Amino acid sequence: MADEDKAEGHSSAVDVEKTTNRLEKHSHDADEALKAFEGIQGDALELDEATNRRLLRTIDWHIMPIMCVIYGMNYLDRYLAWEYPTSRLLQRLPLGKYSAACILIWGLILSCFAAVQSYAGAIAIRFFLGVFEAAVTPGFALLTSQWYTKREQGSRVNIWFSFNGFGQILGGLVAYGIAVGTEKHGAAIESWKIVYLVMGLLTIVLGLVFLWIIPDNQLNARWLSKEDRVLAVARVRINQQGIGNKHFKMYQMKEALLDPMSWAFFFYALLADIPNGGISNFFSQLITSFGYTEEQSLLYGTPGGAVEVVSLLMNGYIGHITGQRILASLGGLVTSIVGMVLIVALPLTNKVGRLIGYYMTQASPTPFVALLSLVSSNVAGYTKKTTVAAMYLIGYCAGNIIGPQTFRPTDAPRYVPAEITIIICWGVCLVLLVGVWYWYKRENRLKAEVRAQPGYLRLENQEWLDLTDRENPEFVYSL
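Given the sequence above, the corresponding structure tokens read:
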């Protein structure tokens, strides 16, 4: 290995002596999973394929349905300033119970919209709604990393995130039905108040179901036997990142802030969600600019949700079978860029072609979800993971705030400056994704060289000591 590579290897794939010292120093505040293996030779506890499949099937049927339905209900924006505090609370408090409490309060606040009498009241309720919604995405990412192996995580994140698309379809149909029904028959009270009340009460019910089903970790899952709880922990030991740790570790937070990948994730979320914020908030005006009526825009926007669902499910499947989540996700982003180019280039008279271009842009979430799944798979050390998750979601929220500002009324009906901004943002995102893929591929090579050093020793239960991905030579990054 060249001198330059040796220097890089020393700083990124930590040397044997430094790692051993870290293991000894932090063994007293190890991962919660370590208690499951007290008195057991951890490495000797192996699952046969039939047992692994049975456990996976049980976990899927208990966890995935409720996560999917709740994420579909979460088709609203999150509040930017609360992303880091909620990520700290997700680490400090019992994961399942805190997430359930946020969902219950979110449903209660949503119901309160029915009683809003003023703009100030609406803003106040929207603020608190965003605060408690903010826990959902990072909480679900942590749950996914806790229960599933790295190979399984990408497809599961794509599945529950795809319910955003189902939410878009349902929301569009409901909005269209209300608009048409109110126009034809009138309404004794504002129809939107009924919608908020019903959706809020439904969210509360779902929150109670979530509280009953989702445990804080495998060790207190009521729907697993005592033996299966230990096996459920054992099946994810290959992740090299444990199942949870309540101790805040400043060195892990510093590592997160100095890790180039943390900032790559942040800037990807920021740049990718400037287009998302613009299109999500102005899709009706965008479709209207193609020559359709306002009512038609509500109805014609719903197939975009179907495109998102299909593209995410395909992305999850292809990434799963190829082991290349990042490269698989590029297809959705390229499709979106082509779609936006069609919107810009086609004449106003070509309504159908421009509408097809809009539908193509709805494949854009595939790389965002791929990177979200990599927060689950590629960031170890519980303090570091919650910090990176917060950074990623802050970038997401900031992009969604900036995006609508690009659609200026003076640019109607074509909004060309906004559309060009979207193309540029997505183009930069392509470069970032390739850079992330290259970085992780290089880091895996450097870690393999560290493991090959004479005298390298892998300690028993090393994966339960809450090491970060950069200080654990056994940690292998997913691509």
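The longest helix spans residues 150-185. Try to locate this feature in the token string yourself.
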